[in-house]
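Milestone 3.1: sequence recovery, worked example.
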């Protein structure tokens, strides 16, 4: 899996020169983030962290990840329409996890009232690592699928050019020409534009539902600008704005400040800290509305870790996707071992297995956004504490994926240049649009490679652990 530039990695003067070029190229290309100190102003910005060099990715696994994306789109969409499955799967979780329970309550409430929404838009990102099996042959294993606020489709559309220039500076023009073009932001915008068009009100706007703290605004602007280019008006609002100024008319059309909203694109709302009582009220208002929510609350629930674990049970995929034998096979091939900690004999055995050998597993609560999973000794301690209480059902257990590390330089503002042993995570962006029961769009629209130093078990780019990368297919 080695990349063809091991030779330059230790040529420190060349690396230092290339790093200066890389940072300026990133700034010029718009690989940007606001600063920690001024997260809501663009007066001072910096480059988003990225690797100096692209990372090697086995081309067969890269193709496999693209090939299964439409299947995953179809699967997520099917789960979101299967009340029985969601109810049954999340029954144990919502007894102990307040956040999932609250989302679930909105879900049932909206269904009881009857859905006003008839056009559905899904934007997801399925994430993988390359597990080096017993014989060293790497295998594609899914980490999770993100069904809400999957980010970095914008910034990653600009990293290939930066890495191409770095390779040229390092005397590798041939390799530079092999980097694949990649533009998920255009694909995401196409999906949003399609949903907007099917909503059928040319004067209505697209609303990005954004966080209070907006460090990653440039990533979102990439998608926004693609919509403006199509003459679709975009507004950016927070839950608080919706609470104060949002309303529904008698047909449950959504209005913000008197402007009709066709599509609500959530880049917020996936962690408990996003919500106070007013924000929950705003969420309910949005879900009740006729506007196309990306995602609707059912699709958000379809992305929970508990659902992921239940999908790995024999027979579940077949039940959810009847008649799609090949899709089921492709999906299942990407699954790592996943285990339920529900109360009962099965869960008891799983807990005992993990406590006996914690380094083989990852313990995951129903949370998104990185930094929540437990590993090793900490996993053992937590599991020992909760093993006999229903609290354990707020977690799932997963086999730990062990990719083979490679050396690279992680470039971050105000940090010294230093070589690190790294592992990468590949994400594929999927977009689909459904009108009633008809899927009118189902596509894989691009990829994201994130790389981190091996000493960090958890955490993404926003959490300050991983950095943006570009795959170099080998
Ligand atoms: P989150 O919703 O917080 O992003 P993830 O399931 O993606 O949760 O886990 C966060 C990070 O933890 C991943 O990006 C990956 O680096 C690491 N991780 C998660 N699951 C595994 C696993 N099974 N094996 C190895 N590392 C994992
Ligand atoms: Mg993740």
């Amino acid at each position: 899996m080695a990349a063809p530039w091991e030779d330059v990695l230790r040529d420190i003067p060349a690396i230092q020169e290339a790093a200066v070029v890389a940072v300026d190229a990133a700034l010029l290309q718009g690989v940007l983030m606001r600063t920690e100190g001024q997260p809501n102003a663009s007066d001072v910005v910096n480059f988003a962290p990225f690797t100096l060099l692209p990372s090697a990715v086995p081309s067969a696994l890269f193709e496999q990840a693209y090939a299964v994306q439409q299947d995953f789109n179809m699967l997520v969409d099917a789960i979101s329409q299967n009340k029985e499955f969601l109810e049954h799967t999340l029954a144990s979780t919502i007894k102990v996890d307040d956040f999932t329970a609250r989302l679930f309550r909105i879900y049932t409430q909206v269904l009881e009232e009857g859905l006003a929404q008839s056009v559905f838009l899904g934007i997801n990102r399925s994430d993988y690592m390359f597990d080096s099996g017993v014989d060293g042959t790497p295998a594609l294993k899914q980490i999770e699928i993100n069904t809400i606020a999957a980010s970095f489709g914008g910034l990653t559309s600009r990293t290939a050019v930066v890495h191409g220039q770095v390779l040229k500076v390092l005397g590798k023009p041939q390799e530079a020409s092999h980097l694949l073009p990649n533009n998920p932001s255009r694909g995401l915008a196409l999906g949003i534009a399609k949903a907007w068009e099917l909503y059928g009100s040319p004067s209505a706007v697209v609303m990005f539902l954004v966080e209070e703290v907006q460090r990653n605004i440039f990533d979102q602007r990439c998608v926004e600008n693609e919509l403006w280019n199509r003459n679709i008006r975009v507004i950016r609002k927070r839950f608080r704005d919706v609470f104060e100024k949002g309303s529904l008319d008698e047909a449950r059309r959504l209005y913000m400040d008197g402007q009709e909203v066709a599509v609500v694109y959530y880049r917020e709302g996936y962690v408990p800290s996003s919500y106070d009582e007013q924000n929950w009220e705003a969420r309910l208002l949005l879900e009740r509305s006729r506007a196309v929510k990306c995602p609707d609350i059912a699709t958000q629930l379809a992305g929970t870790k508990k659902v992921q674990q239940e999908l790995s049970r024999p027979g579940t995929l077949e039940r959810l996707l009847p008649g799609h034998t090949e899709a089921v096979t492709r999906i299942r091939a990407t699954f790592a071992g996943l285990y339920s900690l529900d109360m009962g004999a099965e869960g008891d055995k799983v807990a005992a297995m993990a406590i006996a050998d914690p380094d083989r597993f990852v313990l995951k609560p129903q949370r998104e956004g990185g930094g929540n999973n437990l590993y090793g000794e900490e996993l053992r301690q937590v599991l020992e504490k909760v093993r006999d209480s229903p609290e354990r059902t707020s977690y799932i257990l997963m086999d730990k994926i062990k990719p083979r590390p490679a050396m690279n330089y992680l470039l971050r503002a105000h940090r010294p240049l230093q070589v690190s042993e790294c592992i990468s995570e590949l994400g594929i962006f999927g977009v689909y649009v459904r009108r009633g029961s008809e899927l009118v769009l189902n596509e894989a629209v691009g990829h994201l490679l994130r790389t981190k130093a091996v000493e960090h078990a958890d955490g993404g780019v926003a959490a300050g652990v991983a950095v943006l990368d570009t795959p170099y297919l080998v």
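The mean pLDDT is 96. The radius of gyration is 22 Å.
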